Amino acid sequence: MSVNVPSLNWLRVFEAAARCESFARAAAQLNMSPAAVSQQVRALEERLGVALFDRHAHAVSLTEVGRAYLPSVQQALLTLENATEGLFGAARAQQLFVQSVLVFAQGILARGYENFARTHPDINLTLTTANLPHEFARGFSDLQVIFGSPQAYGAESDLLMGERLFPVALPEIAASVAGPAGLLQHRLIEVATHRAGWPHLFDNVGILPGQAR
Question: What class has domain 1-90?
């Protein structure tokens, strides 16, 4: 059984709703009503025979099928846009799509955006943020700035910078810790989303848990 290619307008609405994670925000971006966005998304889902979004009170999120479909839709829309502009439109800025971990985007990229736009007026930069590998896989990008093991993202990579980790504690506790081994005498709080934890730190300084004193 084959499925006919859906309406281009349905795909545009789906892409905007997926990127905004909101029918209302997508509607404002597309100059449509939220009801019209919802209706066109529903029509697309009925055509494909699957749910593309999970509906919540004030937002929507992609289903697994929706996440798998989104990159192909974005790439197809971008290819069509570029081909149309290249053949029939006036010269326009080159598109550059960058995905970055949130802390790097806010702390570094945002500070340099004004200078980049001034020195590269021919490039139209679109910056989106993500943190986890599956979030980076949701959309199309020319460049990704990730934090963690590059293998988890399935792409070639270049090291931008390293990091230095410091244990922190209340002043009265910190004053009682004479060295790394002294940390083992205290309750240690783990940051689950960080790639390096206490075992990683102790391994790098050559300390075993049994060395506490």
Answer: mainly alpha
